[in-house]
């Protein structure tokens, strides 16, 4: 079940988008739940109270006395620390690219909303969410363990062991080669092999610079080894381009 929110103060556009999404999800045989909001503040308060969404279509322009969509997106990312929900911004104005960058949207769509563009956005979301549902497996002695890849912030090679560092602070240790594990299980699910000792999950990167990356909820930066910097930059840009349709 995909939990979807539509937030637009134009009731006609909200209803039209809802009909379009219902048609697309039915064509793809996907279960869904869609909630419609008419103010960014209303959506944010609903989420603040504990409601969860996987995908949000968020208008940018509201009435002058209302919080705009970009600010709602920032609150979701920064205040709620929610980096998992995919946000699709919608607007009549094109000039928002710089403001939207830090909110890390899935896409930015210009009104009027074309069916083909919405469908392509949904296909992109489904590809990403499928990757997030994949499992990572490792062995400790004779036992095999499986964890969700979406929960792994980074893989580290430390003291002859590999250490999985999870988003909730847990760790798991096992023996193996970080290079082999990366190529076998993580390379195709948007992890970046930034250093001989570190492979990081793209979805937890808050800031990337030429020689280091910062991960969400981790104060200290992680260095990108000199020989990998151009490669990491290229792969990061490729992932950004693919995810933004």
Quick recap:
With 245 residues, the chain is an alpha/beta fold. It has helices spanning 11-27, 40-48, 69-79, 97-101, 115-133, 178-186, 229-243, and strands spanning 2-7, 32-37, 55-59, 86-91, 107-110, 135-140, 143-148, 152-158, 161-166, 171-174, 191-195, 198-201, 205-208, 212-215, 222-223. α2 packs parallel to α3 (69-79).
Tell me the number of strands: 15
Structural class: alpha/beta
CATH fold call of the largest domain: Rossmann fold
Please estimate the helix content: 25-40%
The assigned CATH architecture of the largest domain is: 3-Layer(aba) Sandwich
Distance between the termini: 23 Å
Describe the protein's architecture and organization.
- Strands 2-1-3-4-5 form a 5-stranded parallel sheet, with helices on both faces. A 5-stranded antiparallel sheet has the order 10-9-8-12-11. A 3-stranded antiparallel sheet has the order 13-14-15, with no helix packed on it.
- A hairpin with a 3-residue loop joins strand 13 and strand 14.
- 35% of the residues lie in helices and 31% in strands.
- With 245 residues, it is α/β, with parallel strands linked by helices.
- The longest helix has 19 residues, at 115-133.
- The protein starts with a strand and ends with a helix.
List keywords for this structure.
five-stranded parallel β-sheet, five-stranded antiparallel β-sheet, 245 residues, alpha/beta, OB fold (Dihydrolipoamide Acetyltransferase, E2P)
């Amino acid at each position: 079940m995909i939990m979807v929110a539509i937030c637009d103060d134009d009731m006609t556009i909200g209803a039209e988008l809802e009909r379009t999404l219902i048609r697309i999800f039915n064509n793809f045989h996907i279960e869904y739940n869609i909630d419609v909001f008419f103010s960014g503040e209303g959506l944010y308060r609903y989420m603040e109270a504990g409601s969860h969404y996987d995908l949000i279509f968020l208008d940018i322009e509201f009435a002058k006395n209302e919080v705009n969509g970009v600010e709602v997106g920032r609150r979701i990312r920064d205040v709620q620390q929610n980096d998992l929900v995919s946000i699709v911004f919608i607007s009549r104005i094109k000039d928002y690219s710089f403001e939207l960058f830090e909110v890390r949207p899935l896409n930015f769509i210009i009104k009027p909303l074309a069916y083909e563009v919405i469908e392509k956005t949904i296909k992109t979301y489904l590809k990403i969410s499928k990757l997030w549902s994949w499992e990572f497996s490792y062995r400790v002695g004779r036992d095999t363990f499986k964890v969700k890849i979406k929960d792994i912030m980074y893989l580290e090679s430390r003291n002859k062991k590999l250490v999985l560092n999870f988003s909730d602070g847990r760790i798991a240790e096992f023996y193996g080669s970080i290079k082999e594990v990366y190529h076998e299980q993580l390379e195709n699910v948007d992890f970046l092999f930034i250093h001989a000792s570190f492979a990081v999950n793209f979805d937890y990167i808050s800031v990337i610079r030429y020689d280091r990356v910062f991960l969400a909820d981790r104060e200290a930066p992680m260095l990108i080894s000199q020989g990998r910097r151009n490669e990491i930059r290229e792969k990061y840009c490729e992932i950004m381009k693919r995810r933004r349709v």
